Amino acid sequence: MAIRIALDAMGGDFAPEKAVLGAVNARRQLGNKVEILLVGQQAAVATALEATGYDGAGLYIIDAPEVIEMGESPAVAVKTKPGSSIHVGAGLHKAGKADVFISAGNTGAVLGASLFILGRLPGVMRPSVIGYYPTTQGWCIIVDAGTNVDCKPEHLVQFAQMGAVFVQKVMKIEAPTVGLMNIGEEPGKGNELVKAAYEMLKTQKGIRFLGNIEGRDLLHHAADVVVTDGFVGNVMLKLGEGIATAIREMAEAEMIARNLPGEEQRHIDQVVRGAIRRFDYQEVGGAPLLGVNGNVLIMHGSSKEMAFEQIIYRGVELAESKLPQAIAEAFAASSV
Fold first, then answer.
1. pTM of the model
2. Which CATH fold would you assign to the domain 3-124+291-322?
């Protein structure tokens, strides 16, 4: 049976054209394995779909006449725009008409609609968006990546639990390791939040806690799951994006300064591009919102067709993992 994905076709800076094109590309690759519900303003989405030249097989337009703009108040918009693509998309998932909901729209509104319509999993205090971080040994994940900027120690413990289950079920790492982002490796380092979280994590059942890790070790895969509050996590993600582009610019300047031949410059540029491309959010697509009673993927607002294509692959992966059930089971077991 095909996995059904509800895609907010009106979400992001380049909607609906890039969302629709990404959906078309993903459907061409996945075939009958996936069906995609393009949620948005009927005429605009239909025009974008027609422009791709695709025959429409496996893609279905679900009319949602309202749009929540990026600058709108999430709390107000979710309540006053029940016909928005975000609200309708989350509702399709709640009703069982879609296995996954994906949006590049107003992040606060996606979070609010997910909580309002889908609800939290039992025991979850703060749902959390993860961030994928490239390392020398594949991906690690950062939890939280920006959803919760002010946290309590018990929130960080839950981030660790949810992150570990995600890595186990989706990334297929049987016994994932967990590290706490800090300014030093020693147990007594850090602010009050981190020190208290450390004490709780070291006795928490069901996770392999390695202790504190430092920022310099992140890119060397110090842990599979890196736990932090959303303020620090978001800074880490955006710093990574900036480092990638800066390295390329510095490499170009160095090649010019050394007066390297054009052919040599092209080879070096290809190597640099290959090394840094995993920092590009277009390659990643987006990331799941952990802790809600459903499968929700949140994307960067500037996502283009590559990101939309990639996120649909991640959506299929997420639906197959039965992640919400696994998180609920892990929380129930840890409370015994």
1. 0.93
2. Isopropylmalate Dehydrogenase (3.40.718)
Residue 126 burial (CB count, 10 A): 20
Are domains 3-124+291-322 and 129-279 of this chain identical in fold? yes
Query: What CATH superfamily is the domain 129-279?
Result: Isopropylmalate Dehydrogenase (3.40.718.10)
Rounded Cα–Cα distance for residues 336 and 73 (Å): 40
Domains of the chain, by residue range, sit at 3-124+291-322, 129-279
pLDDT (tens place) for every residue of the chain, 336 residues total: 899 999 999 999 999 999 999 999 999 999 999 999 999 999 999 999 999 999 999 999 999 999 999 989 998 999 999 999 999 999 999 999 999 999 999 999 999 999 999 999 999 999 999 999 999 999 999 999 999 999 999 999 999 999 999 999 999 999 999 999 999 999 889 999 999 999 999 999 889 999 999 999 999 999 999 999 999 999 999 898 888 889 889 988 998 898 888 888 888 888 888 888 888 878 888 999 999 999 999 999 999 999 999 999 999 999 999 999 999 999 998 764
